[in-house]
Design goal:
Layout lengths: L4 E9 L4 E8 H6 L14 E5 L11 E7 L5 H8 L5 E5 L2 H13 L1 H15 L8 E5 L8 H7 L4 E6 L2 H10 L1 H15 L11 H5 L3 H22 L5 E5 H6 L1 H12 L5 H8 L17 H15 L1 H13 L15
Parallel strand pairs: 4-6, 4-7, 5-6, 7-8
Antiparallel strand pairs: 1-2, 2-3
């Protein structure tokens, strides 16, 4: 029996108001680490559909969201929740990234139209799933409140790391990480946070890690703003390091909050299975909490007192951020 296929919303052409649909099966969606430009679409049929011709209806499978601040094991969490027949996990769909940029260029009224047109083609049950978990890239965080408003039954996990862990992750990646942080700042600056109005000359004098600290704080501020708009009981938070350190209770809490019904057998097998022994982004690389902790300690030693100084400095600019890094409605 051939695998069931769907027409998945793969990419958008904002200028021509067109959605590109790609005919794929479940395995192609669930096994691909990232459904963006890194996804090899070779061999999959595609067809363009005008946005005006896309059905503006509620998704057949209830969407649940994992929003994150980067480098906090969001890809791993999304993989853990994937279960054929119950929940389909989609990681960083390119269509959502483009909608977030449409909002930055043209405003929420325009991006809302794209969301309504694209979400039904994103949240399609392939093997009878009742849920689709969407784990957008972190530059899509400007859509958190919009998704909560347009889909009031959806639920949202805000996955974060401590600021210290975020800065260590940036530093560990060397020049690529520091460049990434500056790119994120330019993107989040378009979302209207007051820190973006800082004199460019002053910004140029900041270190890469200072900019990275602002990036983390801006993301937390966006999450707190979305939580305040609510519905608050549809939002929960989770610390990525706590999740990795003890995955079974964390997965149980997420499953209960989302209402997925994964079951204890799936959760126990997943928590003790190969996902926690390999890198979620690259299966060829080994992974483990002990290795992660050792690398973090090594980088922290290299950074020395500068690390604590930058953390304290950033909290002075963002006094509303929780000092312990724990967002509201923590699951564990």
């Amino acid at each position: 029996m051939s695998a069931q296929k769907i027409w998945f919303a793969d990419a958008l052409d904002a200028q021509n108001q067109v959605v590109r649909l790609c005919e794929v099966d479940r395995a192609a969606l669930a096994e691909t680490p990232f459904l963006d430009e890194r996804w090899d679409r070779s061999g999959f049929p595609t067809r363009p559909v005008r946005l005006a011709d896309m059905p503006q209806q509620a998704p057949k499978a209830r969407p649940v969201f994992i929003w994150h601040t980067a480098f906090c094991c969001s890809t791993l969490l999304a993989r853990c929740l994937d279960k054929p027949g119950t929940n389909l996990g989609l990681r960083e769909p390119a269509a959502l990234m483009e909608i977030s940029n449409i909002k930055r260029r043209q405003g929420a009224a325009v991006s809302d139209t794209w969301i309504r047109g694209v979400m039904p083609a994103l949240c399609q049950p392939v093997e009878g799933e009742g849920f689709v978990t969407l784990k957008p890239t972190n530059t899509v965080n400007n859509l958190i409140a919009d998704m909560a408003r347009l889909y009031p039954e959806a639920r949202h996990v805000l996955l974060t790391s401590q600021l210290r862990a975020f800065l260590i992750s940036i530093a560990k990646k060397g020049e690529a990480g520091r460049s990434f942080a500056r790119r994120l700042f330019t993107i989040f600056a378009m979302d209207g946070h007051p820190i973006a109005r800082t004199d460019p000359r002053q910004l140029m004098q900041m270190s890469d890690l200072q900019i990275a600290a602002l990036v983390w704080q801006m993301q937390v501020a966006a999450m707190l703003e979305a939580f305040a708009k609510g519905p608050r009981d549809h939002f929960a938070s989770l610390d990525g390091d706590l999740f990795v350190a003890d995955p079974e209770p964390a997965l149980t809490a997420v499953d209960d909050f989302f209402g997925l019904g994964l079951g204890t057998t799936h959760i126990t097998a997943t928590a003790n299975g190969p996902l926690f022994k390999r890198d979620a982004k690259d299966a060829s690389q080994a992974f483990g909490p002990d290795r992660r902790k050792a690398e973090a300690e090594r980088i922290a030693d290299q950074l020395g007192p500068e690390l604590d100084a930058i953390i304290a400095w950033s909290y002075g600019l963002f006094p509303q951020s929780p000092r312990d890094g724990v967002l509201p409605n923590a699951l564990i």
